[in-house]
Amino acid sequence: MTAGPGGTVLRVDVEQRFASGFAVIAALDAELAAGSMLVLFGPSGAGKTTVLRQIAGLERPDAGTIRFGDEVWCDVATRQWRSPQERRVGVVFQEPTLFPHLRVRDNIRYGIRVGDGGGDGVGVRRPSPVEGIVTMLGIVGLENRYPRALSGGEAQRVALARALAPHPRLLLLDEPFAALDAPTRTRLRRDVRSLLQATGTPAVLVTHDRVEALSMGDSVAVMIGGRVRQAGPISDVFSRPSDADVAASLGIEAVLPARVVAAADGLLEIAVHDVLLHVAERDPIAPGSAVYACIRAEDVTLETRTAGHASTRNHLAARIVAITSEGPIERVTLDCGFPLDALITRRSREELSLAPGAQVTAAIKATSVHLVPRL
Amino acid sequence: MDWTAIWLSVRLATATTLVLLAIGIPLAYWIVFSPRRWKFLVEAIVALPLVLPPTVLGFYVLIAIGPLSPVGRAYVRLAGHGLPFTFEGLLIASVLYSLPFAVQPFSAEFASVDRRLLEASWSLGVSRLDTFRRVVLPLSVRGLVTGIVLSFAHTLGEFGVVLMVGGNLPGVTRTVSISIYDAVQSLDYQAASRTSLLLLIVSFVILASTYSLQRTVWVRPRH
């Protein structure tokens, strides 16, 4: 409805039933700041792509509304509908879907209309600095090729350039990196992230890859079984899943925003809030980089006094906030300068006589902390 | 050899093909992209000439354009003469008779264009009609060529419909197939065999070159 100070509000409240019996009943309310990315996260078949296609106008919900800023894109009750052409969104599918009969240059320029200001809500499409996009995506020199002469990564870069060339107000990405090999995927993620920030285009990314969600997203909406189960800033949602299903789909790990402080001999030193952790990471990450530190609760061990010469690198003074029983396993919620969970057996808890309020030492091996660099 | 008849057949086939291009493309577009449920009825009507005896089709066309029908009377008022046993009447019959040979290859090819390409185009702000023009048509070259060639060749070889609607007027409605029939009736086997051979060779060459073209036409990018 009203644009917030930093961006445009995307409001989705839709219902769509399929012949198979599957239903997507999704509500989503997200403020999309310029250049920011909302991740639609969930397992395959959760209805993420359906919601994305509804936002694009390629799918009509049976009921509900979709609003973008102060525009109504779809309101089934009042029969309001904006065609995909009028919405001015860019869409990139999992497959590049380039026009096979057009050269790369003509593919990229396909959506650009010079001068012609369409009526009926369609804005004027200005000629755009396509060259800038082409340069940032590293596809200079491919302009005269036909799509079939491109590699998968190149084709997806061209598809991105084509989607961004007409200056869309919103970019919709449907698992665009899923079909690519790992090194290509990593490079393209980084380039897309910086391109969106450079052009100020907000984006919605559909993915089931948690590393992708963590490295690219600013906020996340978790979809399971056709419903949006939780939405919010990415580290909040990952660290505090609202229920067991969400937790299971996100992976049961603490996800802590952190910063790399120092790197030496393959060992990184990271700061989580003010707490320093040692991390063994195969891939080098430059000091100063923002990362998410992921720690599984089963990798956190508790000691009542510091063992002087154990091999564990990280020993953190912690206070027990709560203990909840999960069958024979107890989940110990800790405050060690940041929130952290530890899983221990009931017997251990009894032997160490742990109770809420007690001071303990949380030990985490340097190899048990996994870092996801923020792009 | 009856060059008058050959020339007439070529003119008729060319005119029929051009008319079929003009009405076949929109018709095929409608059949493929219309959300109407009853479009199967239109598809069935288009396909009728494939199964109807040419005499039946010719009979109905003759009645429909004859002086007793409103269409025939209107044409008489406009043109000053009736449609039966004229080139125009023959053209109408030929268009109907060859309709499936144009529309079916067209629509099959339109339908085979990857739907995601259309969605990509719409999302890029390009209207449905422009998407058809800029994406579907260029990617349907094979089907268009097939439809054009089949319509042409089919019209070249039609007999029953011509006989019913056109009769046998030299230079007006006596097409090459009628000419061959006439030659046989008058026991001029030499003329019949010459013309038949020509028709056989021409038809074969047209079809063979089309099929060979279909393997190589389409975009072959230089790497």
Describe this entry's structure for a reader.
The complex is a heterodimer of chains A (375) and B (223). Chain A contains 10 helices and 21 strands. Chain A has 375 residues and is an alpha+beta fold. Chain A has 2 domains: 7-251, P-loop containing nucleotide triphosphate hydrolases (Rossmann fold); 255-373, Beta Barrel (OB fold (Dihydrolipoamide Acetyltransferase, E2P)). In chain A, the strands form 4 sheets. Chain A has a 6-stranded mixed β-sheet with strand order 7-8-9-3-10-11, with helices on both faces. A 5-stranded antiparallel β-sheet of chain A has the order 2-1-4-5-6, covered by helices on one side. A 5-stranded antiparallel β-sheet of chain A has the order 14-13-12-15-21. The longest helix of chain A has 18 residues, at 182-199. Chain A is globular. Residues 116-123 of chain A have low confidence and may be disordered. Chain B is an all-alpha fold. Chain B has a single domain (3-30, 42-56, 84-215), classed as MetI-like (MetI-like fold, Orthogonal Bundle), CATH 1.10.3720.10. In chain B, 76% of the residues lie in helices and 0% in strands. Chain B has 11 helices and no strands. The longest helix of chain B is centred in the first third of the chain and has 31 residues, at 3-33. Chain B is globular. At the A-B interface, helix 2, strand 7 and helix 5 of A face helix 6 of B.
Number of domains of chain A: 2
CATH domain fold name of chain B: MetI-like fold
**CATH classification class of the largest domain in chain A:** Alpha Beta
Strand content of chain A: 35-45%
CATH class assignment of chain B: Mainly Alpha
Structural class by SSE content of chain A: alpha+beta
Largest interface: A-B, 30 and 19 residues
- Give the neighbour order of strands across the main sheet of chain A: 7-8-9-3-10-11
Radius of gyration of chain B: 20 Å
Distance between the termini of chain B: 50 Å
Overall structural domain count of chain B: 1
- Report the total helices of chain A: 10
Average pLDDT value of chain B?
89
Architecture of the largest domain in chain A, according to CATH? 3-Layer(aba) Sandwich
What's the quaternary structure here?
heterodimer
**Major beta-sheet overview of chain A:** 6 strands, mixed
Name the CATH superfamily classification of the largest domain in chain A: P-loop containing nucleotide triphosphate hydrolases
Number of helices of chain B: 11
Label the overall shape of chain A. globular
